[in-house]
């Protein structure tokens, strides 16, 4: 009687079949997955809102808030809890009122997000961030 030799090779054909099936599944489902997009503000050329109509929400380096209307020279200090009320008052006069957020560059990013959240909760629909172009920084 003859002894059977053990086979010391791995049959990879079933693994290749499984990999090809998975590849086809991923290729079919990948376009269906909804991808999130982030619209970041641009400092390049764009069409900013008319600054003569806009109300500036200023956030100073120490975190203090101020409102400046119609690009006037004087700004009115506002506490954090008063900001929402001031924005609602401006929107009561003009529902399409544009707002510009001018925050100090050294400010924590969370402070800017807090202002944007407050504005959204107040019902602001037109809001932009004030940026400084690279050529004017020099």
UniProtKB/TrEMBL annotation:
The record's listing under Pfam families reads:
ExbD
What keywords appear on the UniProt entry?
Cell cycle, Cell division, Cell inner membrane, Cell membrane, Membrane, Protein transport, Transmembrane, Transmembrane helix, Transport
Instruction: Give the bilayer topology.
Output: Single-pass membrane protein; Single-pass type II membrane protein
Q: Which residues form the signal peptide?
A: none
Task: Locate the transmembrane regions by residue number.
Answer: 12-33
Cellular compartments annotated: Cell membrane
- Which domain of life does the UniProt lineage start with? Bacteria
Family as reported in the entry's similarity comment: Belongs to the ExbD/TolR family.
Recorded protein name is Protein TolR
Name the source organism.
Answer: Thauera aminoaromatica
């Amino acid at each position: 009687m003859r002894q059977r030799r053990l086979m010391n090779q791995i049959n990879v054909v079933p693994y290749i079949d499984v990999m090809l099936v998975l590849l086809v599944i991923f290729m079919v489902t990948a376009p269906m997955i909804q991808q999130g997009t982030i619209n970041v503000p641009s400092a390049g050329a764009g069409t900013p809102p008319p600054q003569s109509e806009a109300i500036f929400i200023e956030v100073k380096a120490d975190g203090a808030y101020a409102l400046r209307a119609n690009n006037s020279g004087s700004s009115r200090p506002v506490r954090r809890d008063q900001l929402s009320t001031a924005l609602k008052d401006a929107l009561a006069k003009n529902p399409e009122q544009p707002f510009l957020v001018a925050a100090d560059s050294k400010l924590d990013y969370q402070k800017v997000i807090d202002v944007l959240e407050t504005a959204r909760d107040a019902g602001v629909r037109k809001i932009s961030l004030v940026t400084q172009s690279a050529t004017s920084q020099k």
